[in-house]
Structure formats: structure tokens, C-alpha cells
Amino acid sequence: MIDSHAHIYLKQFDEDRDEVVGRALDNGITRILMPNVDHETIEIMFEAEMKYPESCMAMMGLHPCSVDRHFERALYEVESWLGSREFVAIGEIGTDLYWDRTYWGQQQEAFKIQMAWGAERDLPVVIHCRESIDETIELAESLQLSAYKGVFHCFTGTLEQARKITGMGFHLGIGGVATFKNGNLDEVLKEIPLDRILLETDSPYLAPVPHRGKRNEPAFVRLVAEKIAGVRTVGLDEVIAETTQNCQRLFGIK
């Protein structure tokens, strides 16, 4: 299995990061893909990648919650890093209207710029869209989609939204929310082809049942796979095999 989205470099793991990575390996997680947030997370993300080179792979991008009136300065640093070494993806990027719309214009501009970088470098984009799925779909539709590939991470939307996203060629990142009673993702998991689905945790956030409310970690991605298998009435091995292949194809990893 591959956890396609985990922030295991954050301080929530400082006391037991070795054990967390060990539990992931024990549960069959061969790769942990780490999205960047902003300039404050770059070095600690690199440290995790260097310490666990067989497991952890870094992305590079500017998270929408870190976009403000000075976002061009932050994007300059992201672009500089993209030109200096290899990354598995550009991310995480996107939009976020959970708090307010203060920097909505800047978020849209940062999103378009980073999407263009993905196309130029033939890298997948990892898209965040909290409380802004429709707006992000509309933004993506306004771009030359044949040049883009990636995933709408932590998908929590409707079947109609899922079909629009996959119809554009993107994948859906499915995590712990799928296991919540109020997650409302069963219909999506039944109807969307398995070859459009990636497993993720978004660790340390959004832990699946029965760990809801606690710190999430990559080992729990197995619980997400079990949920998908149950909803689709297929074997767990089938879900694991296909979602792993999806990740390998999208991110160009083994």
C-alpha cells in the first residue's frame, strides 16, 4: 500500500516518528508521500525524507492556507526548490474557504501558477479544496486540462462532484472521512471506478474509525482500504493492489 498524503514531518510525530514509520511498514505501507505546506515545513520534510529514504518521498508546493498578500515571495522559494532537485509531485496546492475569503484572489492565482508548473514539469498536482470543491473544479475546468494530472486530496464531496473531477482525468484521494458515519462517501466509493481512487491518511489529521479524534498515522490507511472493500463488496487485496498501482502510475514510483 501507499499512503499518498501524510505530514509525518510535523511536530505531532516528534516523539515517536521511528515507531510510526515502523508501524506503517508492519502494515504493508511501502511508501509515504509527503506534501509540503510552506517555507516553515520544507527543511523538516527533507529531514524525514533523508531519515527514511526507502519510505518517504517529498512533494513541493504552497498550501492555500499559507497564501497571503505576499504569496509571490513564497512561490519564488517553491519554484527555486522545484528547479534544484526532484520531487514526486507539486503539492499541496489548491484553495480553502473554511475560514474566510480574505485571500481568495491570491489563492486562485497561486493555484493557477502551480498548476502550470505541474504541466511544464510533467508532475502530478495534489489539490486541497476544503469548503471549495465547486470553486476548485471551476478553476481547473478553466485551464488546459489535457496538460494536467493529479489528485483532489481528502475528497469529501458528492457523486456529481466526483464525476466531474474524474471526468477531467484527476484521481480522488480517499481517507479517514470515508469511515465516518456522517462521511457520506459510500455512494462515491461504489460508483467511481477503482482506478480513479488513491488511499491517503492526511496524517496527523482525520484519523479513521475507530481512531477518530486521535492522531492519525500512515498505518491506518489499511482501515480506509478495508472500508472501500466493504462498500464495493470486493476483496481487500483487490483494493490494495489497484490503488497501489494507481499511485505508482500517477506519481511515477515503484
From TrEMBL:
- Which domain of life does this protein belong to? Bacteria
Q: Which InterPro entries match?
A: DNase_TatD-rel_CS (IPR018228), Metal_Hydrolase (IPR032466), TatD-like (IPR001130), TatD/YcfH-like (IPR015991)
Which residues are noted in the entry as a divalent metal cation 1-binding? H5, H7, E92, D202
Q: Which UniProt keywords apply?
A: Hydrolase, Metal-binding
Instruction: Choose one Gene Ontology CC annotation of this protein and give it.
Output: cytosol
Could you say which residues bind a divalent metal cation 2 here? H128, H153
State a single Gene Ontology molecular function: hydrolase activity, acting on ester bonds
An example Pfam family from this entry, by short name, is TatD_DNase
Name the family: Belongs to the metallo-dependent hydrolases superfamily. TatD-type hydrolase family.
Q: What is this protein called?
A: TatD family hydrolase
- Naturally occurring in which organism (per UniProt): Fulvivirga sedimenti
